[in-house]
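Title: Prediction job returns without error message
Component: structure pipeline
Severity: low
Priority: P3
Assignee: unassigned

Description:
Job completed but the reporter wants confirmation the result is attached to the right record. Sequence as submitted:
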Amino acid sequence: MSTASPGELRELFLFEDLDDDKLGWLSRYGTVGEHPAGDLICAQGDPAEFLYVLLEGEMVMSQNVRGHTVEINRTSRPGTYGGAVQAYLDDQIEQKYAHTLRAVRPSRVFALPARKFAKAVRVWFPMATHLLAGVFFGMNNLRRAVDQRERLTALGTITAGLTHELNNPAAAAARASAELGDRLLGAQRRLADLAAQGVDCTHLSALVTLRTGLPGAASTARRDPLEVSDAEDELGDWLDGHGVPGGWDLAPGLVAAGFGTAEADEVAAAAGEHLPAAMRWLAEVLEVAQLQAEITEAMGRITALLDSARQYSQLDRAAYLRADLRELLDSTLTMLKRKIGAGVTVRTDYDADLPAVPVYAAELNQVWTNLIVNALYAMRGAGTLTVRTARENDHAVVEIGDTGTGIAEEHLSRIFTPFFTTKPVGQGTGLGLDISWRIVADRHGGDIRVESRPGDTRFQVVLPLTEQPAARE
């Protein structure tokens, strides 16, 4: 170990404005280490004991993110520093190196003990120390608060969308259920009338059998509106010609249930002179069946929505398991259906051969939500939203694209920076993409790539197909 002279330290941009006394103090308490290429200067997670300043050579700063080494900076500029850079903040907090420093080629590095560095900053720059500490702790607290608010806002958006989507089928089921009781009583009365008029059991049985043999509403759904209209006119004429009062009012409901003149002839054969009463009973029974079908459909939609909500929140799954990305993406699209709007076309292109991916499913759904909401904002209610999955070597890729205004080139390098946003004041916190990046990179060992130009913006989320041991921590 050797020392650095005050003159050598003065040549560094970090110390160039210090007076001779301060430079002499640094020279007395600091030492100079010689590091060959590849030598470890300090390791992330070790106790932060020294501030390191590059005198000559080249070093690289990196961080271990969930088992993956991410290079942060590589420099040969004298005066570049790392190590215990926040030692002056609080003596009561045991500080550790937040990054790793390694020599890229033979280098000379000035090392100043963390305690000496902390004392120098506090004594020489007391006001700056308070300001820097305030900024550091204030930004940390603000980031946590806004992070939580961003999550709650996303949850509120999803809850509002789910409530809206559930309202329609729930209202339809309630309406059909209310009408069902009246129609059942009406059908019972019509059946009693037929019995009172002397229709025997054999004919009643034939009518019931005819009702169960009808093709149902599905056959009508396959016809175009003109065919349905012609069928209603034909049946209305038949009923009117056979003396059934209000036949034109009965015809639409009967046709909707798959009823036609051929079936009407069978009813006439079974009911004989009691045809009008039989037709009205049959119309009531068919309406009951239609109301039951509406309730079944509405409940099916509610069940599907709740299943999508379950997939979105992943409340019934362990934290880290293999999941089908298609299911996660579809559930997110369902939750955001109300926000997507009629002017946006959604196109999905899923790789059928993509295997299940080990993920924190609920957290990834927040990533999809952030990216899709941003895409919708960029398209201003009109355009095409594309959701695609693919395999790229040993990684899965989820691409979310839009045809919106695009991201300005000067903003591309900053979009994942905390609190950076291009939205107007009050419309964005600048944490959506930061949260997304941390979920993908920190929690899953993946990456997010972005390409953008007007009319074509694509965010690609890259996830490893193999389980990451660090993800279970």
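Comment from assignee: result matches the submitted record. The first strand starts at residue 31 and ends at 35.
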